[in-house]
Amino acid sequence: MSTRSVAYRRYTVHNRVSAFVRVKEYTVVHVLVTMQIKSGKMTEFLATVKELQPFVLKEPGCLEYDFTREVPSPLGIQEPIDENRITLVEKWESMKALELHAQPTAEPDPRRKQLAETMRGLRESVVARVTESIA
To answer: pLDDT per residue over 65-75, tens digit each?
Structure first.
């Protein structure tokens, strides 16, 4: 079962009447990538992903591509914080959009390809989970 997300655009007529018109409907695919960064390489990793991020956000179907780090919280279920662990949160309009992103030819720009290779070289390990919205 998958939940469909719908994008709407608001239209206002004579500053009084508003209408929301359905623009697009799609199944949101979430990708959660947990990366362990090599010790002493975090500064270089962050500089690399900040430059890489805009390339990916321009891809068709990319809704979100956000690198995050762990922070303390009041949640009792939180794992111990690891300063070298980064989580990449991706959202894609469809599995097809994710497939296109994952293809080796998805890096036609030489600079983007170089950044992706640099990022891979700064990671100690990587694990991904692909999910879809259910509620």
So the answer is: 999 999 999 99
- Cβ atoms of 2 and 133 closer than 8 Å: yes
CA distance 133 to 135: 6
- Buried-exposed string 90-105: b where 16+ CB fall within 10 A, e elsewhere: bbbbeeebbebbeeee
Integer Rg of the chain from CA: 18
Q: How many Å apart are CA 121 and CA 96, to the nearest integer?
A: 27
Domains by residue range for the chain, with CATH: 28-132 (3.30.70.100)
CA distance 59 to 61: 6
Overall pTM > 0.85: no
What number of other Cβ atoms are within 10 A of residue 126's Cβ? 14
Q: pLDDT, tens digit, for every residue of 92-124?
A: 999 999 999 988 776 678 898 899 999 999 999
Helix (H, G, I), strand (E, B), or coil: what is residue 53? Answer: helix
